[in-house]
Amino acid sequence: MAVNLDPDLLSILVCPKCRSEFRVDDEASELVCTNGACALAYPVRDDIPVLLIDEARDTRQEVAEG
Q: Where is the signal peptide, in residue numbers (predicted)?
């Protein structure tokens, strides 16, 4: 399911943990932090980004395993 966010909104959103920019992962419906040390993936539900650190998924383990 593609993430449907306004490009202007996406351009100002940053990771709440480290303040880095996001990349969109349409396949997983997530915004993924571009900082490799942080790399948290935040869910997008009903076209609303859930930017709560407690809701984020840590993608660093997946990269190490891949």
A: none
Pick the CATH number of 7-65 from 3.30.70.250, 2.20.25.10, 2.30.110.10, 1.25.40.10: 2.20.25.10
Question: From the centroid of its chain, how far is CA 42?
Answer: 4
Point out the residues of the chain with pLDDT beneath 70.
1, 62-66
Q: How far apart are CA 24 and CA 21, in angstroms?
A: 10
Which are the contacts of 59, defined by CB distance < 8 A and separation ≥ 6? 32, 39, 40, 41
d(CA 18, CA 14): 8
